[in-house]
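Subject: complex prediction, re-run

Hi both,

The earlier run crashed halfway through, so I resubmitted it with identical inputs.
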Amino acid sequence: MLLVPRLLVAITLGLSVAAASPQISPRVRHESRSTIPSGWTPVHRAGGDTVIPLKVGLVQPNLASIEEYVMDVSHPDSPNYGNHWSPVKVAQTFRPSVESVEIVRSWLLSNGVEPHRVKLSQSGSWITANVTVAEAEGLLGTEYYVYEHQNGHKHIACDKAYHLPEHVSKHVDLVMPTLHFDAKVKPGAPLEKRDGKIQSVGAPGFGPVSPKTTGTIKNIFDELDHCDEQITPNCLRALYDFVYTPLAPKKNSIGIVEYTPQAYVPSDLDLFFKNFSKSQVGQRPVMASIDGGTIDVSGSGFGYNGESNLDLQYVMALVGHKQNVTLYQVGDEVQGASFNNFLDGIDGSYCTYEGGDDPSQDGIYPDPYGGYQGKEDCGTYSPAHVISTSYSYDEYELTPAYMQRQCNEYAKLGLMGTTVLYSSGDSGVAAYNRNCLNPDGSVSPDGKLFAPTFPSTCPYVTSVGATQVNPGAKVTDPESACAQVIYSGGGFSNVFKMPDYQKNAVENYLTKYPPPYAADRYNTTGSRAYPDISANGANYAVAIQGEYYSVYGTSASSPVTAAILSAVNDARLAIGKKPIGFINPTIYSTTFQKAFNDITNGTNPGCGTAGFSAQPGWDPVTGVGTPNFPKLLALWLLKQ
Ligand SMILES: *[C@@H]1O[C@H](CO)[C@@H](O)[C@H](O)[C@H]1NC(C)=O
Ligand SMILES: *[C@@H]1O[C@H](CO)[C@@H](O)[C@H](O)[C@H]1NC(C)=O
Ligand SMILES: *[C@@H]1O[C@H](CO)[C@@H](O)[C@H](O)[C@H]1NC(C)=O
Ligand SMILES: *[C@@H]1O[C@H](CO)[C@@H](O)[C@H](O)[C@H]1NC(C)=O
Ligand SMILES: *[C@@H]1O[C@H](CO)[C@@H](O)[C@H](O)[C@H]1NC(C)=O
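This time it finished cleanly. Structure:
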């Protein structure tokens, strides 16, 4: 409010004031990045007269209270438990203030950007202006370079940091294009042909969590005495005591997110159903295509079909034929997409939120590369009550502001009553490819610092780790942390602070079972710890292109957990209660923790260490444990 009078003066006096005093407060560093992401090299300064579309994302009011709002509807002891917000209330609550709009606009005007170039988005949440590189460098106190990727792709970004006047900085979340690099692989670099690996266009972080396979298997079993060698739907039902027939399938919903070119194969669903769920032969997921999402892709095999087939075969079999499963299939085959494209597709207010999508990281539609030519999807589909995603990034690949913006959206989904599950990663405490962090923020195989996984580290996501039936053990024996082919991702964020709901649980772990590491290994400053829960992630029998494969990964753990939580929603909806929404504050409560099978054996190695160890209570390998369905159901039915 104090700033308004100053602003009026600036507007009234116009250019003369601007010329005399282009800045009315000292400049502060707004965002920085210590290292260039691997693969990129600066080749030369960007030409001063190159025009770039500068986008200024405004801060949203009330974000400081978002934790309070989310807890109010999600904390098990809150009188408002389950009173989720409508999408309209969410959009209104977080719409940027007129003051923020005016302060950013007048900063641009006073620096010589003429009014006709400055545009405000319809939602009022971002301001754009076409400016020259020279103007941007002046506005932001930075230097722009042309960077080239080893695959030949070019990108304009600024060096190390950018700055804003102090009074403007307070009203801005992030400015683009600045420090953000391509996390998404662009076309023109057909990576599926490189190194014989499928790392294809646009699938977000396809690396860190893609399921792993040891190859095809000859015999499949459907008896419970083989669950240590092969997981089937019946093994999972036995492990988690999960037997349930839906009562309210029309009211209930569950969604699985896949990123093209990952695609499920209809005939594989039937092959799987014939063996494991006969009543579902011919059943398909309900397609929610976002930004041209399609299962009609040019490639096939484990790399293209492994993730989608795994997720859908298991979720569909576990929820049974009465319950529809929504498939959010995101992105076309040419450009692909990122998490932000998905979030746009299910929440119209997110499309234009804080600068909208980042063209250097998110798919832009209509596709300029010749793929999907339709309009970008904005709030086309409603979010399902439970949504599971088995894709991820490592935190170091993204900037904090980019992650924060996305994390706020997960909080909003929680406010609206959606449970958001992400797999925790398959590399233990390390990053994808066994890389680990160096003190300067880069990664290398000999890095020593543990490398956390995003979005698992967002406090409003429920992160799911992996367990296994020990070799030679019975399905009724306690599981251990997964130690076959993959290790359960877990640890401590370098970006997000520890939310209150997990403080006691994490403190218990660090006090009773202190890890033999210091700050040169993991973030000891009180960061968000993950995963929250876990489920089996080893030896899944998955039908892929007519054969069965043995598949491993937290990629499996997340959809299986989603199916179990969805049954809880069904039972609540059937008696007129609300869905369980954001579950973390509930599952960390003493009462609910006892409704999980505590995993107390195993570790999640990486970075030349044994990683953390699974211990009684919560741990950064398997969270609070695996679900015990009847116990969880009984507790959740008691809640209002
Ligand atoms: C910036 O320039 C592009 C290309 O000329 C144009 O399409 C766009 O509308 C301009 N944006 C603004 C905010 O003026
Ligand atoms: C499941 O989806 C199909 C196809 O969209 C629809 O016809 C059917 O009514 C749905 N069933 C339920 C229980 O929602
Ligand atoms: C799986 O299905 C195939 C083909 O229908 C059949 O030959 C095989 O015996 C089945 N296996 C099990 C374990 O059900
Ligand atoms: C540790 O995490 C906090 C957030 O909890 C973050 O502010 C800090 O920068 C992190 N430290 C390192 C060395 O990454
Ligand atoms: C502990 O886990 C390891 C795998 O990490 C497994 O080989 C061993 O059998 C487990 N022991 C118990 C007692 O569960």
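Confidence is low (pLDDT under 50) at residues 1-23, 182-208.

- K.
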